[in-house]
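Morning - TNX inputs below, output right after.
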Amino acid sequence: MHFKTSFGFIILLLTVLSCQQKNIETQEIAIIPQPNSIEVSKTFFVLNHTTGINYDNIFEISADFLKSYLESGGIEVKSGNNITFIEDKNLQKEAYSLNVIEDSIEIKASTDQGAFYAVQTLRQLLPVEFENASFKGNQVNIPSVVIEDSPQFAYRGMHLDVSRHVFSLEFIKKYIDAIAMLKMNTFHWHLTDDQGWRIEIKKYPKLQEIAAYRDETLVGHYSDQPHQFDGKKYGGFYSQEEIKDIVAYAQEHFVTIIPEIEMPGHSQAAIAAYPELGCTGEKVEVAKKWGVFEDIYCTNDETFDFLEDVLDEVLELFPSKYIHIGGDEAPKTRWKSCANCQTRIKEEGLKDEHELQNYFITRIEKYLNSKGRQIIGWDEILEGGLAPNATVMSWRGTSGAVEAAKSGHNVVMTPTSHCYFDYYQSDNEDEPLAIGGFLHLEKVYGFNPIPEELTSEEAQYVLGAQGNIWTEYMPAEDQVEYMAFPRMLAMSEVLWSDSEQKSYGDFVKRLESFHKRLDALDINYANHLYEIESNIIEEDGEIKLELNSLVKEGKVIRVTLNGDKPNYESRVYTKPIVIDTSRTIKAAVFKFNSNEKLGKTIIQNINYHKGVGGKIIINKQPHKAYSGSGSKGLINGISGSNSRFGDKEWLGFWGEDIMVEIDLGEEKEIKSIETRFYNGNGQWIYAPKEILVAFDNEQYQSFKLDDDGSLISFKSHFLDQSAKKIYIKVQNYGTIPEGKQGAGHKAWTFIDEIIIN
Ligand code: TNX
């Protein structure tokens, strides 16, 4: 019997097995990323010590991988015809087919890389104990499948910042292993930044002696004031020998490493070692805190000589077609008052410092092109014109990508909204400290790398996407894993699997089963599968709190309302809870018919104020990346997180003044109005300086706000005031001035619940 399915998750019950054989293990089918087509039948290939493998040289890497994988499960394979690798020139480079029937396994591909991906799929059909050599059986039943598979995007990447924090070679290999297991093919290695230079460059020893170490590191979050430091010297670098070893390792996993050497900005560490590379020539230190720094490379010839020498050594180590040259966040302050840079502007007939940035990038591009390489850079390389052959990595939203693709440049998508795995992934207040933001697994999963503004022709320029791991707040390797997994699994599916067939519900089921594999691999993934999502809804004229858990099968939600005993057994959640008073609701996911609590308890405080249930209109749409639960969310009785402005409760607006109108439905007495603004300057979020409030047809009253701290609260009391309608004007902070984080850009405004009492 055959059944074809678009759902990847199939549990093959042991009852379908013939029960005569003992010691046979079978495996659930839960492949990530989901193959394009998979047919499963109820027979098995029995893998054991008699199994033989047959391949030709072109499949050496993938066959060796398979052999050593099976051996680590205690199954020694010899040569023979049970598992065969077959060359099929009709398949595209990364495609494969995998055919498991009762007496054979056939892998077809046109390249070793395609076969390698077949092996990664086959690996996921085997018990997870193969991952850590703990398999005790002597044979395995591999379910019969016919899989035809190929990727949607050619560029499937993960990035890792090793400047802000350094990670061991062993860890880098483990990261590459995971990239390869998920059929991703690019590792973007961010090797230099203000806080440390991590690649040995033989011609410039001070990069190793000075630029690789900072005196100390910021403690806590950048927004915590005053800044405090740990007093400990921190750093290190990878020697060229070590890098060669990593590059070779990556090649054996069909992962291309794109090295990133940042320029002209994020270069304070190099300038600390060689002050003549900066505009002032003065000594600076390797940065000890995060952010954007004004000391950037000068545009004198000495800088270009230095960078060409550095790149010469980089090219020797990395065979990749692309070299990432950074290009992001380069404040123009120093260039404006630097005689050398001003002369350069005049001599080259440039309009301003933005064109000077273009001159810089284009000059480096010419050099790299002359060596047969291509540049890739963050979307700021569009400033002042785009270098002729550059590929753009679009991080500040998608407009850079659209502009680049429309002018015929390749792009790689990494917008903060869907690809920044340094952002929080859960609303839970006890998450480890992160930079900010909020990027939920489901949002990553729902990412469409092709911006909607592009025609299908222009869409060809979108090579793919990448998850970024900036490590300011990740000092330890297990924390990097916590942030990377499982969002990286979702990204792998965005890039590999057919978007028509994608289903988040199905992905989550496969993920639940994949956890065991991640456990066996000793990967410290974040598990938010048993978390509860709560939403305020309006139903039958009542306001209700609806609770949902991601994984439903075999689980229940238990709740307590305040007043209840703190005993979850008493109440199983069955339908939305009516909200007609302020209350605290606690809820958690439990195993069905058991006292085993699976996830964390969520605590939802509901403040049933006078605005709840009213009507709200905001004259501007929030930014689509930060639209929370829409304008309604500002009067739903639930306040946003104290640290995660990207949650469902905060609304974010970019560079716009907004006007909020709240209709209470009838005239009510108003004693106070309060709200909060986020002030995360590191993320270009600035609280307004003033807001205006008016009631019905009355005049606006103006209120000045503080500017101290990362959360700015506003509360005003009123005497003898009643109204049906309340109007609130919130003025955007404006263009961010020089010297502040995000200088020159429009500021964001983030507003929380408007509490009316
Ligand atoms: C912006 S993304 C940066 C990085 C930071 C990151 C933190 C980019 C090109 N530049 O330097 O680490 O934000 O999210």
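Note: Residues 328-329, 378, 395, 420, 422, 435, 470, 472 surround TNX (CB under 6 Å).

O.
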